Structures are given as structure tokens and as C-alpha cells.
User: What shape does this take?
Amino acid sequence: MEYINPITKLPLKESETGLSDSAGNFFPKTNGIYRFVESSGYTGNFGYQWKTFKRTQLDKFSGTNLSKERFFSVTNWDKESLAGKNILEAGSGAGRFTQIVLDYTQANLFSFDYSEAVDANMENNGPHPRLHLFQASIYEMPFPENSFDKVYCFGVLQHTPDVKKSIECLYKVLKPGGELIIDFYPYNGFWTKLNAKYLLRPYLNNLGTEKLHAMISKNISWMIAATGFFTRIKIGRLVNRFIPIVDISSTFPKNLSKDELKQWAILDTFDMFSPAYDQPQKKEDIKYYFLQLGMKEVVSKTVIYNQNSGVTFCRGIK
Assistant: This one.
């Protein structure tokens, strides 16, 4: 795989300590990760989040198959056919899907995240001969155009400043005939934002990561109990959306222990309120962006996995 300076587009040469171009620009390699950004910018909350909860969502640590089921339900990829392919993972987090690609396929995985979550990913999944990790921006990736056989971006798109531009950047590094798959929070009319998540974001998003984490941890037990109670008396669908906690009934696997449930709930509730951007999208809009780029066989829909968990995605061929 060739790498380029994401600003000047000059080719980069690899050394033990990093990557450099002919103009003298240097990008260091620390902890086995190529660094193309000096800070995590608007994704600082994710660096904190995935270092704090670095093992929570990984199947090999949680004892579940949730990440595996979600990954293959959305991609519908044949594991055997991925051998030797170059795949790009845009926004790795702590590496829940990195693990799936490495464990269940023989693909070469190039994975990046804007935040320091890449360090948690390296700790969880590396070093590995088929894993290449980068800390970089989705808008300034160190890859030439037409580099990858497949590109996926899960749990990221709605947290970027410009959703359409993010899709365009991923499209550029995809090979002709290659496949792009992204998932996103669906927008289903005004009801989508008539929710504690969006009603309280203007306040909670400004608390700071540590204070927000502490507040959620302190209140998580009563919120779990309350949502469970309202679900049992058949009014959870109406009432629980106004309690500032993740939707447990349609998100988590059923076999979590009490302590695991609490950790997952803290993590996903923190993930609700901490991102700088949270922009749910209409399925038809994302499909239109794909079609505008000239992509073929475009599908935008919601798939159910793990009995009751759903994820909305769009896929297309370049």
C-alpha cells in the first residue's frame, strides 16, 4: 500500500520512526501507529471514551457475538472472498470491528481514527501483521485515490462535521468496482429529536468528559431500574425516551450480567451526550448522496440483528 501526505499529496517513504515526503514533512510512528494529527480536535471525547471503556464492546472480552453479528448483518460479506483484499475502516474506536475483520477474514485492514482511541485499538488488537493503524482525519486521509477494495464506516458518520463531505472522502479512496458501506443514526421526523438525548444535549455536552462520565455513573442504576419498570408495565416506548439513558431494550444483548449491563449502559449513555456532533440522517438523503457520486446497486435500509437490535446503513458499488 502506498501512502501520501494528505495535504500536499506527495508520496511518503516509510522508516522505522515514521513517514516522510520529499519536501521534508514527517509524520511520526508512535506505539505502532502513524500519526497525521497532533490532537484529536472535535473527537476528544471519543479518545477519553474508548480509553475508559476500551474492552467493553469487544466480543473477545464481553463473551458476546454482538459485534460479529452486527458487522456481517450489515456488510453481508463472504469471509473467504476477503482474503488478500485491502479494506479501510474509517473510525475504529477501540477496535470492536477491527477484531472481527482480523479474526474472521484474511483481509489486510487499514484502520484510522481521529481520536486517541487508536491507542486502545492497538492495545486490543495489535500488533498484527494484517493491521495498519493511523491517527488521521476522515477529511485528510494518507491514502491515494482508488486504494481500497472495500471501505466501511460504522458508528462514525453522524459525528462528523459534514456528513456529505465525509462520504465523498471515503468514496475517493475506494477502487472502481469497490464497495462502500456506512451506517448512521436514522432521522424519522420530529419524533427522532423529541428525546432526552437531544433535549438535554445543549447542557450535558458542555459539562466536560470527566464530569459527564461521573454524572452518568452516579445516576445509571436508578435510570436502568426506571426504564425496566416502565417497559414491564408496557409504557416504556412512550416514557423511556425522556429518561437520559440509552435504549437498553433495543440495543443490548440479552445475556449480559448485571455489572456488564451497567457498564454498557454507562458507555452508550456517555456516547449519547459527549460527541461534539450528532446529526441523524434521512435514509433517502444518504442514498441520494451515494447516487450523486455515481455509485451503483445502492441500498439504504435498516437491518435487525441479535433478535431486537437494529442498525441503519447504506451500501453502494463504485
Q: What stands out?
A: The chain has a mean pLDDT of 94. The radius of gyration is 20 Å.
